[in-house]
Amino acid sequence: MREDRFVWVMQPDFLLAPSQLSLFEKALEDLQNHRPIQYIIGETHFGSLSLKVREEVLIPRPETLELVHWVCEVARQFPHEIHILDIGTGSGCIPISLGLALPNAALTAIDVSEKAIGLATENAALYHQDIAFVQADVLLLDQLPQSYDMIVSNPPYVRELEKKEMSRNVLDYEPALALYVPDSDPLIFYRKIAHLAQQSLKQGGALFFEINEYLGEETNYLLSQLGFRDCEIRKDIFGKDRMIKAIK
Ligand SMILES: C[S@@+](CC[C@H](N)C(=O)[O-])C[C@H]1O[C@@H](n2cnc3c(N)ncnc32)[C@H](O)[C@@H]1O
Questions:
Q1: Which structural domain, as residue segments, surrounds residue 119?
Q2: Contact call for residues 137 and 186 (beta carbons, < 8 A)
Q3: Interval 133-147: pLDDT, tens
Q4: Is the entire prediction scored with pTM above 0.90?
Q5: Quick one: pLDDT at residue 21?
Q6: Ligand 1: does its nearest atom lie under 6 Å from the Cβ of 177?
Q7: Which of 53, 69, 134, 177 is surrounded by the most beta carbons within 10 Å?
Q8: What's the gap in Å between 80 CA and the centre of ligand 1?
């Protein structure tokens, strides 16, 4: 591909075929309408991975990669096979990265969205990762499929009131299901997942969340109230409270 680009530059007389030109024109129009480039080309990068993305599924963010690195740091301290669950898997970026980094990990991933589960399955196949994908609404679950050493989640956490800070590429194109929570109960997913984790996380197991930068203290308080210990908040590369770890 790189070679192709080089060849094009070296040929000033190179002309695109009309069908190729119309693709470019359509892409330009889409960009002017704020459609994310990742949806236009159908691909995004997550660390060293190239993942497929489609409009119905959230484009993975670099902050989430920082969460993955933290999970790996802790997971490497487990000498035996470890069972890890990802809740709200979207493109599958979290379990695929964990699977590649941790040969001793057995991975399960849940999402309510059929489109997300379909895409995550395609992405896992690209990287030959054997991940058990489950379509389920975590808010309706009474219990998790089995017990785990670690549970990780980047759940929806943007309050409606924060929409005014957001740009059109996110507001107009990314799935609301993946992003928003009611202003009246912004920690709805954290509370539910923490309750489920109280039953299904092994003693000494770790719960990791990506968090809303404005709700770090509230999330910390919630997890402590639910009996988790050693809660630790970490900031992302932009200096914002972005992730939390808690131990059962
Ligand atoms: C913020 S996105 C995270 C996606 C992916 N893990 C990432 O980091 O890019 C939240 C995900 O949670 C899923 N989700 C929303 N509500 C859910 C529910 N009730 N049960 C399970 N998954 C849900 C969405 O479909 C979406 O894929």
A1: 61-247
A2: no
A3: 999 999 999 999 899
A4: yes
A5: 87
A6: yes
A7: 53
A8: 29
CB 216 within 8 A of CB 244: yes
Query: Is position 6 within any domain?
Result: no
Name the residue type at position 38. Answer: Q
Q: How many domains does the chain have?
A: 1
CA of 43 to the centre of ligand 1 (A): 19
Residue 10 identity (one-letter amino acid): M
For a mutational test of ligand 1's pocket, the pick from 54, 97, 113, i.e. the residue with the most ligand atoms closer than 8 A to its C-beta, is 113
Average of per-residue pLDDT across 168-196: 97
Q: For the domain that residue 191 is a member of, what is the CATH number?
A: 3.40.50.150
Closest residue (by CA) to atom 14 of ligand 1? 88
181 CA → ligand 1 middle, Å = 11
Measured from the CB, is residue 51 less than 6 Å from ligand 1? Answer: no
Q: Measure 17 CA to ligand 1 centroid, in angstroms.
A: 40
DSSP per-residue letters across 64-80: HHHHHHHHHHHHTT--S
225: Cα within 13 Å, side-chain hemisphere: 8
pLDDT tens-digit profile of 36-77? 999 999 999 999 999 999 999 999 999 999 999 999 999 999
